[in-house]
């Protein structure tokens, strides 16, 4: 450890405010470049996870079929991330020679997708399941077909839970994407691993702070998107019946799925 | 016309919710299903729009077997008012009402305009249109539920305890509004309630079901009161049947006596030989009775002196209302008014009873 907290804070601020650290050079990728790479890794993983697990979760919730998939997805959360990554690299990397970094990118993305699928899937499922039976009944009673009930009634009512699932997936993916650097790829994890290796603690701490800042910014953006897509009739902002806080909901859901 | 043709619904485990139901709900009329809890009212109702499929037997809608078309198409032709409203929490009130027109592909603007009309029709302020269900009271939600069922102007309406979630006064208002609406629209309505008074008030015909899902009696409200088929129906229809049956007889030929009155704000009459004098307002509408013995001489008639316990009977109304006006009046003279609420005269209980006797027992 560096001597004295104040000194460390000063060093970290110094490191972060040094313009040289932000720009890339032919030898070294700067903060902006690594930030871009980090965002890129996360986006790929989140989009793939969303495309897989949102429709699947909605479908399981709507039909009540194959609920074991949700249990399996939640069990996947228990896998040790780094262990899986190393294993996948050992299996996959030898299939790619030199030049391209696909041998490392693919294992990283698989790990991130595995991380993002469970919260999205189980929240989409829980969101649809939690739609009041009376509301679902009314939808059928008005003459909606199954898909219409799902898209026009269950989905909009499940949105708060879907958002909280996606937001927690995003946080986890952004935090965990640092491991890309563990297998020679870029991203903000670069500063953490390099800092650690070189005992350059200001650099290491700065890397951590940048990841946290990115996570906060992403969450803020999603909160904003949630505000504009979720009907005021269910957020409670319009009404006197306050809707339950979405974070509490995801917590409850996680607890419920663990005990189930 | 809706016809149950030996319709039975049984559940695995042996529960028979509806047992071999044969019933016809005529076009343009209100058929009420009534009975104790668990007797299969909701099940019967939901077999009509196939929210529940009969285990055996059929349900016919005019000349069509309801099972012969896709369920969602059938349901779009049938207005359905769900117990406890069942509104969509994520949609505004106006969009809730427009649900079925949206499904049928009606132009959105047009559908919303019609929804606004309907909201007024069921007695809701248009200001509610942009709100969400969570912001409405239970009674207001039930009105929206009725408006939603009416939106696509379906010839058939199914209503499951639509007025259950409100206090008796509002329920009475909703029932009156409902009857007014029905006299305009003339829909074929099947109405479920567990409240026999509601059944008798609203039904053109009433079907009493007993637990086990069998039909105990199908009759007009009047018949039900005067001739229950068995002890179960008699017990279910309840007390005061004779008195309540008077509610179906017009008091048309009732002759009234002229009643001396005093107007609010005028001095007390002197030298009246009666104990009680009827007080009217400037327009001639009865306000209440005044007990002369209690008042100081030369006082002016004021609102606070009035005894307001008496009910009013309307000329051409029912014998029940006429008799009640007499029994509730402190002077023993029942007050009869015209349609506009102006005094016509008074009758005594004796005279009403004579009239009832001269008509014989209702049949
Ligand atoms: N899914 C089901 N499985 C088994 N039995 C059922 C099911 N649904 C309803 N029943 C039974 O069928 C009977 C009739 O139910 P139904 O809902 O039609 O009663 P109801 O007359 O509407 O009663 P209430 O006035 O309480 O609403 C009840 O005894 C009920 O327990
Ligand atoms: Mg019921």
Largest interface: A-B, 25 and 26 residues
* Helical segment count of chain A: 12
Oligomer category: heterodimer
Radius of gyration of chain A, in Å, reads 21 Å
Domain module tally of chain B = 2
What are the bound molecules? adenosine-5'-triphosphate, magnesium ion
Distance, first to last CA of chain B? 27 Å
Sheet with the most strands, sense and barrel status of chain A = none
Q: What does the model show?
A:
The complex is a heterodimer of chains A (260) and B (363). Chain A has helices at 5-17, 19-22, 31-63, 68-76, 81-92, 102-129, 133-141, 146-176, 189-197, 201-229, 232-235, 246-259. With 260 residues, chain A is mostly helical. Chain A has one domain (31-259): Orthogonal Bundle (MetI-like fold). In chain A, helix 1 crosses helix 10 (201-229) and helix 3 (31-63) runs antiparallel to helix 8 (146-176). In chain A, 39% of the residues are buried. With 363 residues, chain B is an alpha/beta fold. Chain B folds into 2 domains: 2-238, Rossmann fold, CATH 3.40.50; 261-358, CBS-domain (Roll). Chain B contains 13 helices and 16 strands. Chain B has a 6-stranded mixed beta sheet, with helices on both faces. In chain B, helix 12 (319-328) runs antiparallel to helix 13. Chain B is globular, with a radius of gyration of 25 Å. The two termini of chain B are 27 Å apart. Chain A binds chain B through residues 132, 134-135, 137-145, 148, 153, 156-157, 231-234, 236, 238-241, and chain B through 49, 51, 72-76, 80, 82, 84, 86-92, 99-100, 103, 131-135, 148. Residues 11, 15, 17, 37-43, 194 of chain B line the site of adenosine-5'-triphosphate.
